[in-house]
Amino acid sequence: MAHDEPVKSGGPEKLVIRNIGLMLSGDLARPILDADTIVAVGGRILGVGRERDLDTDGAQTLIDANGSVLAPGLIDSHVHPVAGDWTPRQNQLGWIESTLNGGVTTMISAGEVHLPGRPKDIVGLKALAITAQRAFDNFRPGGVKVVAGAPIIEKGMTEHDFKELAEAGVTLLGEVGLGSVKAGYEAKEMVAWARKHGIQSTIHTGGPSIPGSGLIDKDVVLEADADVIGHINGGHTSLPWKHVCELCEKSSRAIELVHNGNEKIAIEAARAAIELKCPHRVILGTDGPAGSGVQPLGMLRMVALLSSFANIPAELVFCFATGNTARIRGLNCGLVEVGRAADFVFMDRAQHTAGATLLESVQLGDLPGIGMVMIDGLVRCGRSRNTPPATEVPVVLQGGH
Ligand SMILES: [Zn+2]
Known about the structure:
This protein has 401 residues and is α/β, with parallel strands linked by helices. It has eleven helices and 20 strands.
């Protein structure tokens, strides 16, 4: 997704959301905003504050949040899409649209590795990456922004290949280590070429995911120095805790925690990041679709897991799933901030949770109920078909589509 690209979905000219009970910003420095109203124009946030202080006249779309909680749409930092809304991994249709119902508005590909017959020759892997980038840029399943076209690097690639990929619009590398480049020194050279040409890299960390993939240990991760330490908690098999700890301490790169990984290590790594005073490095993903399936609520489950078991305030964990990822990935979403995309998830405490508020319910380990999801200022779904029912849901008073 290019940042300054015009909004293709043709957002309504003016959107006003009022009566927001609690506004989560996605920013660790100030996770809760003193605001109850958002104004957006053309799918971009124009104003955030108190209703009386904002120009709310002339809105084509008017939404009453009914006192529910608004947060930036969740960003899944690690998915493996293939084509449209189909995944061959579990032969499932509609998984991205179902994940929208879990509050996810943007997904980042860590490689289109599940494509049956995936080409591994250099011209073929470049062609696949460019095709995936174009296809997901042209088609957003359910409205979800899928940043795809993440080639799996193979031995024999030269700097020119990375330059060519970058010029063709590729912005990401798929997980380093899933191809034939598994040695630290080789990965380091290619990661540096990618970085030089503006392509961000992620490295697979831990044991093999499925038969045919391999181990990437902490020495390879440190030597390769990719921008994102992909699934530091394993996908699924984790490195020993002391090695994960060493990665948190010795590297300054992003610490990615995924649902399809070792949950105990995810909790430990999140705690370590807080203790090391680098919570801004923590980003969340699902690594779905995977051997354990598709988890439409995987991002919410990560938020509840880390908040409850790692004992991190829920408003901070939501930043791991939104603003942290947007900043690290260079995306114009993920924060409730003027100029950013109007991608929002509306939540409330699930009906009959023991928590008195949404944040308290998440800290108790319960999932929130989603009442609405918006992308680029457009309503993409109302009450989620997948979460437990939210106590209060927003109401569209006018317009909306
Ligand atoms: Zn992996």
